[in-house]
Amino acid sequence: MRDEAHTSSQSRAGTGLPLGTLICELLGEISTLLRGEIRLAQAEMKREAVKLRSAGLWFAAAGFFAFSAFLALLASAHYALIAAGLPPYAAAGAIGVIAILGAGLSAWAGVSRLKSLNSPLERTAHQTAQDVRMIKESL
After folding, report:
1. What keyword terms does UniProt attach to this protein (predicted)?
2. Burial of 134 (0-12, 13-18, 19+ CB in 10 A)
């Protein structure tokens, strides 16, 4: 599509059309080009938003496991005080350790998803730079 616009503006330049007509056509092509760039930026932002949602869900899982660990550790302390040396608190402590491990793994997964996010406008910036070069060459 962009190549067609480039070719069509080149072929009209040699036809002897008035300068005002050429400028109007150029502005129309630039407007079409900018609309395309905006659509590209929207698509890239949507793709990155999906990744961000995934990272948020992993952080929510980490919060759930951390809260579970907190409750289990409280139960462990409770059993330790009541039982004064009886083994029921060891079971609650083991559950707390497992919950902490789950929270750590979930947080690690969320952080790794956040690190995988790309600059949302990287492709758009590259394409816009190419378009600017094309416009300069055609003038």
Report:
1. Membrane, Transmembrane, Transmembrane helix
2. middle
